[in-house]
Design goal:
CATH class of the largest domain: Alpha Beta
Distance between the termini: 33 Å
Mean pLDDT: 95
CATH topology of the largest domain: Aspartate Aminotransferase, domain 2
Shape: globular
Strand order of the largest sheet: 1-7-6-5-4-2-3
CATH architecture of the largest domain: 3-Layer(aba) Sandwich
Structural class: alpha/beta
Bound molecules: pyridoxal-5'-phosphate
CATH superfamily of the largest domain: Type I PLP-dependent aspartate aminotransferase-like (Major domain)
Strand content: 5-15%
Low-confidence stretches: none
Length: 387
């Protein structure tokens, strides 16, 4: 089902930002577990390293690797996806500014935005599947556009190239949350975005063992502004987490191919299953934005949402799977299942959930890379007894 070739991604994933360590030749970037760095004289740091909140060599390697994968000028790593998102707000906005955002963002992003309303930042939510809705939302004072595609959990897509043009015409920056797609599937900076943010907790990490975030930027001033946020507000990841993420990105392309293949197979199985009312997956030709997905993405990802008709049936299904573990989060090698309306998106106000069709009868799958026969069998037995 892949629509685009690999074009050197795997080589960058394994090598970008990393050199053998000069002292010993260690091929893996060491975990520089240190808080400070000895200086050659007063205010004469060696190789630019002074204090590990500002920079740390393990983090520097990770940042260079992620910048290469997203095709950006630089990357800045943070302690979580939300810390990375907040750094974008702090680096680009001042009181009175307006942010125009997609109406189906990750639940925690909405919660963060509501906190920021207290400080005089205004957030306007628009249906970004229609670029004209973005144009209408960009009244004067809009400094930042914040989009997510595909969205979580409704799997709606946004045309990033069209939205980048519209945002820039209005003098606003475009930030894209690329957590669901990863740079292997979609590279927003190449489509015109100024900033890309990830929860690296998800596919970039890929093994459900790190909380992390990153911002990749398309210009030196933005790199400097985000670096200043790391130094001045301190929400940085430790070197062990940076090491784990560096180790993870080496297999991102291999994992993503497996996630896509497994999800494609499961989407077709669910689509034909009599107990399932609706399957939301951009790889299905019936998805309303399948053509945009083919144009904008290399493949269709590992996330699937299905509607089983009622909240009771959703609860019954997620309680019956054995391989698919009932948990929040996504993007790991192991398969997860959840009811997003009652879990990850419970903090979204009920009327907004209703408005966008995020009902409690929706079940979200993060399809892992186990044997697809076993995954299909697990879903089959769960649906057969759904009651
Ligand atoms: C999980 C997630 C976040 C938040 O990231 P954390 O690492 O949990 O802070 C942001 N955006 C998306 C799309 C996510 O899935």
């Amino acid at each position: 089902m892949h629509t685009l070739p690999d074009d050197g991604f795997g080589t960058l994933a394994i090598h970008a930002g990393q050199e053998p360590e000069p002292h010993s030749g260690a091929i893996m970037t060491p975990i520089y577990q240190t808080s400070t760095f000895v200086q050659d004289g007063v205010a004469q740091p060696r190789n630019g390293y002074e204090y590990a909140r500002m920079t740390n060599p393990t983090r520097t390697a990770l940042e260079a690797n992620l910048a290469a994968l997203e095709g950006g000028v630089a990357a800045r790593a943070f302690g979580s996806g939300l810390a990375a998102m907040e750094a974008i707000l702090k680096a680009t906005l001042s009181g009175g500014d307006r942010v125009v955002c997609g109406d189906n963002l990750y639940g925690g992003s909405e919660r963060l935005f509501r906190f920021w309303e207290r400080y005089g930042i205004e957030f306007e939510f628009i249906d970004s599947t229609d670029p004209e809705a973005l144009r209408a939302g960009l009244r004067p004072g809009a400094r930042l556009v914040f989009l997510e595609t595909p969205t979580n959990p409704l799997m709606r897509l946004t045309d990033l190239e069209a939205c980048a043009t519209i945002a820039h015409e209005a003098g606003a920056l475009l930030a894209v949350d690329n957590t669901f797609a990863t740079p292997w599937l979609q590279r927003p900076i190449e489509l015109g975005a100024d900033l890309v943010v990830h929860s690296s907790t998800k596919y970039l990490g890929g093994h459900s063992d790190v909380i992390g975030g990153v911002v990749v930027v398309n210009s030196d001033p933005l790199a400097e502004a985000l670096g200043w946020q790391q130094m001045a507000t301190g929400a940085v990841p430790g070197p062990m987490d940076c090491f784990l993420l560096l180790r993870s990105t080496k297999t991102l392309h291999v994992r993503m191919r497996a996630h896509c293949d497994n999800a494609a197979r499961i989407a077709v199985f669910l689509d034909e299953h009599p107990e399932v009312e609706r399957v939301l997956y951009p790889g299905l030709p019936a998805h309303p934005q399948h053509d945009l997905a083919r144009r904008q993405m290399r493949g269709f990802g590992g996330m699937i949402t299905l509607d089983v008709g009622t909240p009771e049936r959703a609860e019954s299904m997620v309680g019956r799977t054995r391989l698919f573990a009932l948990a929040e989060s996504l993007g790991g090698v192991e398969s997860l299942i959840s009811v997003p309306g009652r879990m990850t998106h419970a903090s979204v106000p009920a009327e907004r959930r209703e408005m966008m069709g995020l009902t409690d009868s929706l079940v979200r799958l993060s399809v892992g890379i186990e044997d697809p026969d076993d995954l299909v069998a697990d879903l089959a037995q769960a649906l057969d007894g759904i009651g």
